[in-house]
Amino acid sequence: EDKVVQSPLSLVVHEGDTVTLNCSYEVTNFRSLLWYKQEKKAPTFLFMLTSSGIEKKSGRLSSILDKKELFSILNITATQTGDSAVYLCAVVRRDDKIIFGKGTRLHILP
Amino acid sequence: GAVVSQHPSWVICKSGTSVKIECRSLDFQATTMFWYRQFPKQSLMLMATSNEGSKATYEQGVEKDKFLINHASLTLSTLTVTSAHPEDSSFYICSARSDRNYGYTFGSGTRLTVV
Questions:
Q1: Inter-chain contact A100–B42, Cβ cutoff 8 Å?
Q2: Are B22 and B7 in contact (CB under 8 A)?
Q3: Predicted pLDDT at A8
Q4: Which residue would you say has higher pLDDT here, A11 or B28?
């Protein structure tokens, strides 16, 4: 059965800290891996990763995919209170089906 | 960029009534749209995949007669929750894949409360 496992489930850090969120997967017919940030409403897109070893960066956020070891990480440096959210990892199969992890709930203390 | 509009944002209805939720792709054509359900503090669970011009594909455990999906055009998919009950109260989100960049864009979600 396909699965996407995120860790940790919950994380509390102080503003300014760096955090690393993990996502491992076992999915048949992998096409790409997606990271989303969800605050109160629908998830907002962060990154799409399809190739191993190529870091994607957007401001203080970066992500990388390892297709051999079947995992991805999302890094957030110099965290701010606005980074508090649930971060969702999802894997897209070649048939377009998306399997979501349970998410990591990140809380940044001022 | 690709925008998906979902309507309504929230709805309260009486038990036994039906509720329709619309999902529109505003600036691209979406041959495939996805409907998710999310319970509080849980992840998104795929309910069904909606294909334009054909029947939706439902995930195991999702009642197709209760959650009617219609994808009549390349820009509109609807989810109708029929004979709603309090246990159907949830956050429903649609997403669509843009053929332009293979990205998946989510609608803003609909919070359904059945009383």
A1: no
A2: yes
A3: 95
A4: A11
What pLDDT is stored for residue B48 in this prediction?
93
CA distance B92 to B45: 10
SS (H, E, C) B18-62: CEEEEEEECCCCCCEEEEEEECCCCCCEEEEEEECCCCCEECCCC
Distance, in Å, from the CA atom of A31 to the CA atom of A64, rounded to the nearest integer, reads 15
Express each pLDDT in A9-39 by its tens digit. Answer: 999 999 999 999 999 999 989 999 999 999 8
Question: Pick from A42, A99, A101: which is nearest to B107 by CB?
Answer: A42
List of chain B residues whose C-beta atoms are within 8 Å of the C-beta of residue A37: none
Compute the distance between CA of residue B19 and CA of residue B16 in angstroms, rounded to an integer: 10
Q: What is the DSSP string of A42-104?
A: S-EEEEEE-STT--EEETTEEEEEETTTTEEEEEE-S--GGG-EEEEEEEEETTS-EEE---E
